[in-house]
Amino acid sequence: MRFWRYFLNMILPPRCIKCGQVLSERNGICAECFGKITFISKPLCHCCGRPFAKSIDVKFGTVQYCGECLGKKKRLFTMLRSAFIYNDESKDLILNLKFRDRTGTAETLANLLYAAGTDIWKEKPDLIIPVPIHRLRLLQRRYNQSALLCKYLAQKTEIAADYVSLVRKRNTVPQVQLSGAARRNNLKQAFAVIHPLNIKGKKVVLIDDVSTTGSTLNECANVLHKAGAMAIYALTLARTEE
User: Fold this and answer.
1) In sequence order, what are the beta bridge partners of 127?
2) Which tens digit of pLDDT belongs to each residue from 12-41?
3) What are the structural domains, with CATH classification, of the chain?
């Protein structure tokens, strides 16, 4: 096995999934690119995962919530965590996987998801579910990037992955083209649970690439709650800056 890995690396040397620089190991990010990515770490909101300024004094072990989660904004998921901030330095990681057929990057990105989900794994979830795309979009793109992430994450966590119970009923306008209330209205009745017995009484982790307003995650969580899910957590590669 070591010989074949060495032989393969000679022919196709491992490269950084962001800039393409040759690396000593497969499935990685070079030190320069890694240093440019704004990874999310504590202190952060216990519910939505919004990072707080590092200058905020948070005592070790205490639970903090942002103003929105303390206020009137209703979130249907128990906890959201993201690996990094979506900006000019990180967006190619998302775009390469989602639109440019760079499916080989999914395993490395799933490793980042795993690290970001530490708080979620402590809750001992039962299922990992990717946010689904509509079948027409699946025919065009040929794969669901969230399902690819889910595959590797399930292998790493040994938590069962469910790719069939949650479906997207309507081929909605891409959320990136909308804002505010239009995003929420665009997703109304867009999702459904077609195998509720798989969901009832389970702790579910939703997997997606980017969280912007949380509308997609909320709509998925809504139908999962109605199907009897005990708790719903969300894990995304990136979240947009506030």
Assistant:
1) 160, 204
2) 678 899 998 888 776 689 999 999 999 999
3) 1-35 (no CATH), 71-240 (3.40.50.2020)
